[in-house]
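Reading group handout, session on sequence-to-structure problems. Before we discuss, look at one worked example. The prompt was deliberately terse, the way you'd type it at a terminal:

> structure HAD family phosphatase

The input record follows.
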Amino acid sequence: MDNAFDDYIIDFGGVLVGLDRRRCIDSFSALGVGDVDKLIDYYYQGDLFGRHERGEIGDTEFRDALRAAAGADGISDDAIDAAWDSFLTGVPRHKLETLRALRQAGRRVWLLSNTNNIHWQYALTHYFNTPGLGIDDCFDGTFLSYVMKMAKPDPDIFREVIRATGAKPGTTLFVDDSEANCRSAASLGIHTLHAAPGCDWTSEIIKGMA
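And the output record:
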């Protein structure tokens, strides 16, 4: 891999954090929320979940809609959040160490994620809580779909990251587990690395720095 990248844009779900769709679906089913298997996807969330991810609805409206779907007003916020957060399985330490190494080598690293506030707050508490491997250690800045009110693969989200950071597409690498997201970024001249299942993208980046 070319080592001439000044900026790295890194996805969160499926690239940094592991995902367990089946566990999440089972967790919601246990609360009485049915048919979520049609809405929860590894790459793009549907209907209610997608609106939450794009910031079109907030956490309260999201939870209330799920309670209504289950016909159970007594389901607590914490129970809903726990079911939704069960989608996330953890961030291996070596991935965060790779991001920190990039920054220590003078590269800029940005997070670009289709996510929601519930997942993001969980991630901050559980995955970026190691001294020296916090958000500010690993990233120069974060771009989150629910804050930006847009989501990948919309090219406008990449345009906004480029505009806000001053990164140059020709010296920027985007790492994502979705081919559609990679194609969208590539259409703007951004280099891409498709982190397909089983792909050790950290090794590819480290080799590129050598």
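Points for discussion. First: The two ends are 10 Å apart (CA to CA). Second: The chain is about 45% helix and 15% strand.
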